[in-house]
Specification:
heterodimer, A: mainly alpha, two-stranded antiparallel ribbon, 3% strand, elongated, B: alpha/beta, Alkaline Phosphatase, subunit A, eight-stranded mixed sheet, three-stranded antiparallel sheet, 11 strands, 33% helix, globular
Amino acid sequence: MPVRDAVDSLVRFPQDTGLPDAPADLPDWSTYLAMLRDLKTGRLTPQAVVESQPGGMQGAAAQPAMNAQAAMPQTADVGAARKALALRFAAGSVLALQRWWLQRMLATPAPLQEKMTLFWHGHFTSEILNKGVSPPDILAQNQLFRRYALGNVRDLTQAVARDPAMLKYLDNARSARAHPNENFARELMELFTLGIGNYTEADIRESARAFTGWTLRRGQFTEDARMHDNGTKTFLGHTGNFDGGDIVDIIFGQPAAPRWFARKLLNFYVYNDPEPQLVDATADLLRRNGFNLLPVMSTLLRSNVFFSSRAYRALVKSPVEFVIGSYQLYGVQTVSMETIGELRRMGQFLFRPPNVKGWDGGATWLNSQTLLTRENFSSALMASPAMPVGSWLTDGMPASAHDAATRLVSTVLQGDASPASVERLVGYLDGNDTSANGTFSGENFAERIRGAAYLTMAMPAYQLA
Amino acid sequence: MNRSRFLLGAVSGVTLAATADSLFGRALAQPALPGLPGDAADRVLVVLNLAGGNDGLNTVVPFSLQQYYRYRPTLAIAQGDVLRLNDEVGFNPALRSLKAMFDRGDVAVVQGAGYPRPDHSHFRSTQIWQTAAPDTFERTGWVGRYLDTAQLSKRNLFNGVAISQVLPEVMVAKDVDVPALSDVSSYGLRSDKRADARAAFSSIVRDDRVPFQSPYLATVAEIEAHAQRGSEELPKLIAGYKTDASYPATPLGRSLALAAQIVGSRLGTRVIYVQHGSFDTHASQKTTQDTLLESFSNAVSAFYADLASHGNDKRVLTMTFSEFGRRVAENASRGTDHGEASPMFLIGGGVKGGIYGAHPSLDQLDNGDVTYTTDFRSVYTTLLQRWLGRSAEGIIAGSFPTVPLLA
């Protein structure tokens, strides 16, 4: 069965994809130091940095604005000039990183690996240019997620607890024996592994003690014995002189842990609000496989649940899935700069999740502004002169407007449109909405097909996966 | 006649504003509750979320309490720096422009706002404040339930407006679709070269007789249709609004500038949501919080100057909330961890300025946190009954005494 063959190739992705591990065109990272200093002293707010990015501006205005920043005179006053310089490089780097990853998602022979990397990014969240999290930190974290994409979840959690971006983002790097910082300990249990109701406030305080001294020296993870609380801790019913590694191990012994990951995976890949029995079954699979994800995903993606009617178009496409999927559908091979700004207005700004919980998905992707941005993305994509129109309808020229409409609905929506909407498309192709240029013909073929493709992408089914 | 055609047929922004007003404002006016001054249908509530958990003790500073200085060796604000409101508490010096409004009697401070058995999770506690339900899980927000029961015109797309990337839970209603938009310039369809496709677009986005089922199908179709209509109407409806006000160049400044424009254009909007943050200051709190408080204070001050210049300042009441305050004792990274109660601000010409509720004790802490002295649902009940002119019944579960903070 072809679909199952496709699943086979997905789960057996090559470790070496032949793609570059890091973007080639990043500016010199040493220039971030000035900016990070300004962020620290409050002369610059993270919002200001983000808003300085071309991605934060309106489409076509982005590139000139970026050029204007690059050309900003540096003579006026030293502070302002340095700020402008820092902004320019920060903007360049965040943008370059986002574009690199999107481009990788588009070109990879191992899409499941990138999709899992995106899953982990939304799960073990960290935010670029906040709390001193630098572009190199985020890139290293992204590579960690890719390395563990379908690997062992417990090992990944151990690695995340030692990851520089995470140590900075959730403040553990600055936690010390005298007054432990609870930020990482809380989110580790609430959002990363167990969920509310499966631990107490006392467990948070005790585990925060265990993580003291897990910090950074010259940017690398280190255990600082002077900052570490060596006393006895009582955590989730266990008592001992625990450190962070023990805490993670104890967490993975809790029945709530496999359930937490199972629910999250089902929500991301299958459907939202999965039945408790399905969550338990998936959790059981995860536990029996020692938290190794490859056999679990391999089973899940071949399962009757994955192919059930309940799972059919049961997910709202995330902005990244919507954009990359559209590029792939139409054979567009290069991610444009404008797309990054559009992704932000659709609600998904890579490396900058809305908060530590990541993107909620489902209905939260849907509101007036995000859907308008999706339509505008489709419209811009179809207006692009680089669009290879002829190649979509591979079996030669369509014989009629009806033929073209049917083929579009089949290719773009797998046929999921009502007969009335197909008729509306035919009407559009035949020029019923305009008196100019007459009926569908070789003359207006490319223009009408682009318009009809835009309309097909506006149908509700296209938002759903 | 179709409302959008009727409105779009009008010739100028000024005419549009007046038409919108007569259609959606006065025509739909609710009868005012006895004793309620003015026209409740003319009033607007702005809900301002100070997201991330704002440290209350360094916002409204209890400078008279020795304990405050003991718990906060590096973070405490010196007595001489506090902007005194009375002999006990004062504002963080970053709130200079808010202090000027307080001195004019336009700011009510509710001290120690919170709820029983507080949750220390950002997400659960935010949900509790937004749904006004500490003990149950509700699918709608308290403002959403107000919009559902306020008998507003179903054809008005702007009964409530969220100026944010994602629709916040507080605005989620059962029957009313609240648009979420972050700015007007990108709120619209780019028709490009295919104006002819637009006619087909409006019927096609509503295609709901599709050969499959999906839990999101109806939502997608409805929001797409509303978004298309709303984005055609809104820019025209608010285009007539002119202002000289100068807002800070911050996200909150831009959000409130748009809020003033919506209020001034009289679209019949009853509630507007905006947010500011993040106040989650686990480390190096001072810089972050002071920057955020200053931009909050300046943006709100500009907002009311703008409103006042159009005679709207008494029509608009702004309520702030934050999911929790922070731990009384600072941590080793010069920050504070998640705590419990914190103050709320109610701002505008309609409030009776002053300080309400007792400041939480620093002598008797709940595991290191201050205990709430006013249930936030008392404030919500007050706003529903005395500002929006609706009974809180069916909107807020339980019964809570009102706070006499409205003029």
